Amino acid sequence: MLVPLVVREGGLMLLLTQRADHLSDHAGQISFPGGRREPEDVDAAATALREAQEEVGLDASHCEVIGEMPEYLTGTGFRVTPVVVLVYPPFSLKADTREVADIFEVPLVWLMNPANHEVRVFRWEGGERRFFAMPLYAAGERKAPYFIWGATAGMLHNFYRFLAARA
After folding, report:
1. Alpha-carbon separation of residue 95 from 43, 51, 55, 88, 92 (angstroms)
2. What is the pLDDT of residue 140?
3. Domains of the chain, residue spans
4. Count of C-beta atoms within a 10 Å radius of residue 55
5. Which class is domain 2-166?
6. What angle do CA 43, 44, 50 make, to 5 degrees?
7. In whole angstroms, what is the distance from residue 15 CA to residue 4 CA?
8. Residues in the chain with pLDDT values less than 50
9. Residue 55 near residue 47, CB atoms below 8 Å
10. Which residues contact 87 (CB under 8 A, 6 or more apart)?
11. In this structure, how many other beta carbons lie within 10 angstroms of the beta carbon of residue 6?
12. What angle do CA 31, 37, 39 make, to 5 degrees?
């Protein structure tokens, strides 16, 4: 997974995607660009950059890899290595509509504010599951146009904890 931090005059922005509604896995969810490793990928960074190119048209020439976060195990059993990059404008993006419904940016400062990290509980007959959520509300709105949750919110929470430990 690529954690693309876009360098803007007003501060760092995190580029995220909303997955297409017709996908069989995680349809409509907010996610980082990224996907499965291919045999030609030499490392996690190569996978993340290739997948970002395929999904949103982000050219690697605009990206500076600054590191990897610890591997993240999703609730569905996938192992993900978040690769953090700085993305330097100007660049253009084009969503592969077979996979991506939307591309948007969120201020990193908002995402790194623990007041915006919620723990939610999903209960069903067989038990319960706790997960992080970060609903993005527009000014004056009561419904979140983007609802970051699950693995994406978990990795963002880990990123916050990593940065807070370094401060």
Report:
1. 24, 12, 6, 18, 10
2. 61
3. 2-166
4. 24
5. alpha beta
6. 95
7. 6
8. none
9. no
10. 4, 5, 6, 7, 15, 58, 62, 63
11. 20
12. 165
